[in-house]
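Private note to self, pasted from the team thread so I don't lose it. Backbone tokens:
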């Protein structure tokens, strides 16, 4: 096993095209070791103990195209490769690199492999000409445009710790064709973080990320984006977690209405009453509740569960946003649902009021809810329903009353709810 290489050791055999010194115990590469190897095209130094590359160790190797330094102990490249001006392919995988400085790489490098290091940060890639880069299995946490070469065609950042990809990161990467972001820590990925200005679409892998089914993923349901700009490979294996139900859904099966963003208050585009309180196009989430909306403002979910005493004092059913489509009220204290508690909510489709101690419901409590299809009043203390509780709310097809104390359901109920197909109680 070689443990040391002396300077100018290869001078007298200068016609060497390829040198393989892999699987030795070399601790470093001294200056001028490969000097004047004018015909050298390939150098393999993998599987050694190299922790240092000295400046000028690769000087005067004008034809050297490939260097393999994988499986060593390098913590830095410093300036050791700057004179390897002809190198096109470099492998520094399975070393101890913490910072990847693109300007420390050979100036004409096109193919970089730096897998399984401990890289946490990428430097500026302003002058880099790298076309393919594999950085799999490092510790990179965030990515922005200046950290990626404009020349990049294939980029593998899988199995890192990515949590954030900045907007326009790939906008100027017009040659990019393949992007692997699988097995990272991404919870969201807006369209502007991924789209590039190239003619060809990008094949992007997002598998193995803890993605939320967020409205910022809405672009995956837009055919013009998916077909022309981004092709998400393995959609059936790429999962997101529904922010309301907690269900895990595959991206190829997820519906646009399931891609939701949480809000405290939100105005629809072109809303004219945005500076005021609740109105048809502005939604304010009640204190202590969780509210979600989709990208197109067609789905609006309001969830109020087990409110604190202070939040409960400020809460009233009428404070639920007018644009709500799905409302879940549970574990509240509402002994009486008063008249017009739910008045004029033209988009409301599902209404759940459970385990909230309801004993009585006043006439017209459910007033002008033309799209309401499901009403769940289970686990309360309701004794009687007459039908007077409903006004212009005839689309209800599912009514759940189980877990109450019902003694009387009058005929007027079915007359007012003429679309009923399912009743449980």
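Design output:
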């Amino acid at each position: 096993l070689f443990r040391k290489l002396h300077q100018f050791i290869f001078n007298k055999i200068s016609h060497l095209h390829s040198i393989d010194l892999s699987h030795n115990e070399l601790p470093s590469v001294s200056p001028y070791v490969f000097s004047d190897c004018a015909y050298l095209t390939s150098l393999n130094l993998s599987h050694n103990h190299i922790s240092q590359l000295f400046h000028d160790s690769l000087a005067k190797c004008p034809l050297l195209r490939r260097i393999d330094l994988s499986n060593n102990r390098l913590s830095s490249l410093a300036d050791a490769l700057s004179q390897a001006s002809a190198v096109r392919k470099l492998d520094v995988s399975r070393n101890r690199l913490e910072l990847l400085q693109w300007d420390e790489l050979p100036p004409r490098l096109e193919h970089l492999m730096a897998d399984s290091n401990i890289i946490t940060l990428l430097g500026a890639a302003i002058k880099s000409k790298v076309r393919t880069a594999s950085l799999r299995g490092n510790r990179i946490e965030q990515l922005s445009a200046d950290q990626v070469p404009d020349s990049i065609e294939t980029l593998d950042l899988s199995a890192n710790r990515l949590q954030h990809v900045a907007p326009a990161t790939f906008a100027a990467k017009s040659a990019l064709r393949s992007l692997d972001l699988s097995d990272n820590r991404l919870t969201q990925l807006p369209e502007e973080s991924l789209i590039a200005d190239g003619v060809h679409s990008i094949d992007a892998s997002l598998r193995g990320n803890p993605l939320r089914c967020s409205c910022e993923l809405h672009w995956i349901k837009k055919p013009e984006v998916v077909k022309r700009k981004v092709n998400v490979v393995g959609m059936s294996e790429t999962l997101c977690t529904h922010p309301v139900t907690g269900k895990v859904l595959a991206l190829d099966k997820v519906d646009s209405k399931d891609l939701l963003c949480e809000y405290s208050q939100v105005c629809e585009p072109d809303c004219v009453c945005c500076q005021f309180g609740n109105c048809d196009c502005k939604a304010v989430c009640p204190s202590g509740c969780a509210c979600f909306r989709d990208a197109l403002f067609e789905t609006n979910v309001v969830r109020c569960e087990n409110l604190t005493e202070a939040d409960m004092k400020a809460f009233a059913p009428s404070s639920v946003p007018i644009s709500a489509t799905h409302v879940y009220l549970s574990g509240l204290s509402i002994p009486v649902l008063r008249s017009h508690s739910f008045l004029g909510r033209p988009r409301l489709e599902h209404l759940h009021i459970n385990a909230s101690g309801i004993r009585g419901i006043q006439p017209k409590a459910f007033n002008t809810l033309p799209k309401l299809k499901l009403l769940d009043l289970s686990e309360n203390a309701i004794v009687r329903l007459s039908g007077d509780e409903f006004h212009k709310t005839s689309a209800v097809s599912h009514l759940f009353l189980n877990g109450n104390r019902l003694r009387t359901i009058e005929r007027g109920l079915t007359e007012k709810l003429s679309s009923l197909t399912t009743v449980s109680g």
